[in-house]
């Protein structure tokens, strides 16, 4: 019987060896987020019926009952929880191989690459660096967590490629790398030429669109409701141990929950989440479109746009902003600026300045946490 084996080890060569041992035994790996406290780790191990656990002290049998691991299952991820409800996503060795194949087609010769893994392997962006390097049999260096000085030092010593999130990219000299893949949160408006933005989900084994163009073997379609659909061999096998239904329809399309448009030359633009549309005064407002307009102001470092309850408008467009520490920008000045970019009904009616915004481990805004204080005594409309 195949087992689900948790890896409770910081990202390191030891983590990679544990992963290989699990796969060599025909079992399925479950990388556990190292930022969780012990109580949270124990809870997630229990919720997902983990059979065994590997730590720096060795491998232990837990004796869980209820595991449903199948022969070809390779890895279990929990989603980032940007919507507040993490899900267990199973990928097989086939989808890992497909991911490695399509990314290799994008890069060309992978044999001389030297990849740095410094994002959490409990998330698909960090794990994908490891799994592809193992499949490609190229050099791999690991760091237990992102550290700007160490990342730059390793680049000077010969590391050629890495995968980062936007907050990490802004802290290093990107020119030290041959190529950087950028995922997670919204990218900055101006990117160095050696940085490639990616779009993907845990369910797609990470990035399937590089620089707005779908990778070879991946199909992208836009539904009548403007939802982004993805089809191809990189898709997840199933949700694990949860009664969530299946997001892949009978024609093989994954329903991402993201909204987008496709240009005549097949360039994808992501415009928001279906669940993040703000309905204000009967008008649909894309939070991403508003965020782009606010973020274009030179004094704005971070922004999250949310809908908050309002008796007149139903939902009121509100921007939570982290500005440059030396900026004297006011709420009225920023609203006036955005009105030069967008139609009036899309512009924020309120702006709050914050020191930081709630984010996941991969840098995604946790909108549910940002909205929660405003909706405590209200029921938010589901779109």
Task: Characterise the protein shown here.
The protein is α/β, with parallel strands linked by helices and 383 residues long. The chain folds into two domains: 4-266, 3-Layer(aba) Sandwich (Rossmann fold); 275-374, GMP Synthetase, Chain A, domain 3. The chain is 22% helix and 31% strand. The protein has helices spanning 13-24, 38-47, 93-107, 124-136, 148-156, 166-169, 287-295, 331-339, 367-371; strands spanning 4-7, 28-31, 52-55, 58-61, 73-78, 88-92, 114-117, 139-142, 161-165, 179-183, 195-201, 206-210, 213-214, 219-222, 227-231, 238-239, 254-262, 268-273, 277-280, 283-286, 300-310, 314-323, 350-353. Strands 8-7-9-10-11-12-13 form a seven-stranded mixed sheet, with helices on both faces. The longest helix is centred in the first third of the chain and has 15 residues, at 93-107. It is globular and about 60 Å long. It starts with a strand and ends in a 12-residue tail after the last helix. Residues 379-383 have low confidence and may be disordered.
Give a short synopsis of this structure.
The protein is built from nine helices and 23 strands.
Please give a handful of descriptors for the protein shown.
GMP Synthetase, Chain A, domain 3; 2 domains; alpha/beta; 7-stranded mixed sheet; 383 residues; Rossmann fold
What is the overall pLDDT average?
90
| Helix content, binned percent | 10-25%
How much of the sequence lies in strands comes to 25-35%
Structural class: alpha/beta
Q: Uncertain segments of ≥5 residues (pLDDT<50)?
A: 379-383
**Separation of termini?**
42 Å
CATH superfamily of the largest domain: ANL, N-terminal domain
Query: Could you say what the CATH topology of the largest domain is called?
Result: Rossmann fold
Number of H- or I-type helical stretches: 9
Main sheet characteristics: 7 strands, mixed
